[in-house]
C-alpha cells in the first residue's frame, strides 16, 4: 500500500514536469470539462432532486411531535443537502460515472499503445492526458454540487408541498432559518477535494493498466471503489478539520 | 544512423536482451528479424525510449540518447516517427486529425493552412486522400497502418520505426504496406527500422537485416545474402515457413527451377483474353 501511494505521488509529480503549451492544455481542459461536467448534468439532476424529495418526505414522516414547527423540515433538508448530501452523494455518483470513464478511457489508450504513441512523439502523456482531466474535474464538480444543492432543495419543496406535509410558506421559512453562509463554502471545498481524489485516483488506475480488456474493466472497477473510499475518508477528515 | 551498443535488458532476472550491438543505416530499410519472444520489440522499445535498458547505449546520428538530458532526449524523440502494431490511432480523432496531431503538438509555428497542406500531402502519399473525415473505427486494418505511416512522416521524421507493420493483414495488403515503407525510406532518406518475422518483407524491403535469436544478434546482412546463410538458427527460421519450404521443393524438383514455374502463370495472366464481364 505504501508502495502504491509512492507510485501515486510520482505519477502526480510526472504531470507537472515537461508540461505542454498552455493553449494545448487549456483546449484539452475545456474538452474534458464538457465530458465531465455537461455530460453529467442529467444524472446529477435526477439523483439530487429525488434525494431532496425523499429526505423531505422521510423527515416529515418522522416529525410527529406537534411542538416542533413544520418549518423544521425545510431547515433539515437544507442543512443535510448543503453539508452532506449535495457534495458527498454527488461526488459518489460522479465517481461512478466520471471515474470509470477516466479509468476505462486511459486504460484503453494504454493497451492500444496510444499512450506509447504520445511518448514516442516526445509528448508527456501524463501531462497531456491526465492534468486536463484533473483540472476539469476540479472546475466542474463544484458547479455540479451547486446545481445539486438547488435541485435537492427544490425537490424537497415539491415533495413537501405536493404531498401536503407542509405549506410552501413553512418550507421557505425553514430553509431561510439560521442560514450559515460558511456551510456553502465548506461544501464547495469538499467538492474540490473530492474532484481531485476521483480524477487523480481514476487516472492513476487507468494510466497504469496492463494487459487487455479484462484489465481495463478491473481498472475501472478499482477506480470507482478506491475513489468512493477516498471520498468517505476525506469527508470525515474535512468535517473534523473545517467544522 | 542509429548505433546500438551492448544493450542488455532483463525482466525479473530473466535476460531478454543479451548485449546486442548493431547499426541501423540511414536511407535503408533495416529489418529486425526473429521469431516470437526473441527480444525484437523490447529492443525497439529501448531504442525509442519507451523502455530503459539495464546496460548499453543508443546513439542517434552521433548524439547519445540513453541517460542523456531530458531536453536532448526530447529533441531526438521529436525526430522519431513510429508505426505501431495496431496503428495506435487516437480513437477520438478523425484520420485527418490523427495525421495533423503531431504537427499541432510539435510545430506550433506552423499556420493552420500549412498544416492542412502537409496533412493533405501525407494522406495523398499513403493513398488516403479521401479518408480524412473517417474515424479509426470506420477503416480497415491496412488503412489504419497507412494512417499510422502518414502520422509518422507528417512532422518530417528522420527515423521511422515500424513494429510488425504486416501483422493482421492479408498478403496483398502486406506487400503494399511494405512497398510504401520502402518507397518512403528511399524518397526521404530516412533511417527506417522494421520489426518483422515475415519472410515476404525480408525479400521485399530488406536492405539491411539483423537476425535476433534468444536476445542475441546472430546474423546481419541483406536480402541477397540471407538465403545463403550458414547460421543454423537463421536457416531454421527461414525454412520454417511453409511457403518457403514448398518453393524450395518446387525449385529442386522442377526442370528450370522455381523461376520457370512462377513465370508461366504470369505469362498466361498477361496474355489471357478479357471476358465480356471483365
TrEMBL record, chain A:
GO terms for cellular component: ATP-binding cassette (ABC) transporter complex. The chain crosses the membrane at residues 34-61, 134-159, 179-204, 216-242. It comes from the Bacteria. Pfam families: MlaE. Keywords: Membrane, Transmembrane, Transmembrane helix. GO terms for molecular function: phospholipid transporter activity. This is Phospholipid/cholesterol/gamma-HCH transport system permease protein. It comes from Hymenobacter daecheongensis DSM 21074.
Automatic annotation (TrEMBL), chain B:
It comes from Hymenobacter daecheongensis DSM 21074. It holds the Pfam family ABC_tran. This is Phospholipid/cholesterol/gamma-HCH transport system ATP-binding protein. GO terms for molecular function: ATP binding; ATP hydrolysis activity. Keywords: ATP-binding, Nucleotide-binding, Transport. The keyword Transport applies. Residues 2-239 form the ABC transporter domain. The keyword ATP-binding applies. Residues 253-278 are annotated as: Disordered. InterPro entries: AAA+_ATPase, ABC_transporter-like_ATP-bd, ABC_transporter-like_CS, P-loop_NTPase. It comes from the Bacteria. Residues 264-278 have a biased composition (Basic and acidic residues).
